[in-house]
């Protein structure tokens, strides 16, 4: 597939790295030569210095041959113009990153589609939605719905009190009664697709696919109880912080800490049910005075990963039950998890999840790139006469570094065993390591 990425900033750079291993023809455009230097060293990537909103630059990138044009510059107006021009010049699909929720309203979204943009995505809104979802499932580090909520991915660390500690995968499968299945274990910075004899140890992070009815039972096995959130403190008046406050201020007691006094004043005018406090979140005495010890949850979403990690660690040590931090520096993610931060949010991986499905030939309904793990979760719709329908899973020859965790067939949900047979039009949720992703699509196509 020929892919053009307009914008070599953090998101564009991450996308280029992620897609470069998939045998794609990738071109990256940016007006800043310094940003292009960071991606030039990657294999099979062509860089073009220039303005992606000009005809000359787009033609130089051979946009008329592009299967996918992705505009991910910092300025949404540039992305919109570039995406429209790319489509008009011949790109098969054109998508753009935006920063304005108004553009996603149904009537407005339709206008952009009529102009030629196939898909608009707003990473900060998606990140805020993930945080809000996690605040409803406080015993997990990640909780992702698939197939309209019929299936869910539940992620939690195993401690000494967990039912999983010291048991094998076979033991857990017997315990589950076919209502859930462990699909991966993260251990020592490595992700393992488990087999029946593999054992769970204290300190592991386990990934489980479960049907909706069993999700609560699965979370009970984590050894942690779900906490009802009433008091929430948000550090950072970023787009993510503002969206979280906007959606939750009518339900919870929300305090938002913002260091910049001018920004804090403006936020106080727009968030009428949120208490806005102009303070430095790194000041222990100030945070104590503002009541951090009485909070049920703390969310750090400033523009600095270091600040978010430090303040989240402070909140955890001061007894806050659920702590979430935005960490955009990928090298800090494992550090953040190792010091006890419950959940990490990363906009780059959120963006990658939304875009990656456009690069696959198979009908992929959803992809989730998991924070702190090499793996990804994909939801496929099975085509008639697909190879996976020709035999039971035992004899399907499915790659060892991927596993089918759940099947949705109409209103029914199945956690398949080796003797299960998949039908056409089933929805299959697959957990896969990167090496298997290019291979697994053909099984469902």
From TrEMBL:
UniProt entry keywords in alphabetical sequence: Ion transport, NAD, Potassium, Potassium transport, Transport
Pfam families for the chain: TrkA_C (PF02080), TrkA_N (PF02254)
InterPro entries: K_uptake_TrkA, NAD(P)-bd_dom_sf, RCK_C, RCK_C_sf, RCK_N, Trk_Ktr_HKT_K-transport
Top-rank taxon, per record: Bacteria
Domain RCK C-terminal: 141-224, 365-445
NCBIfam families named among the record's database cross-references: PRK09496.1-2 (NF007031), PRK09496.2-6 (NF007038), PRK09496.3-2 (NF007039)
Name of the protein described by the UniProt record: Trk system potassium uptake protein TrkA
Organism encoding this protein: Alistipes inops
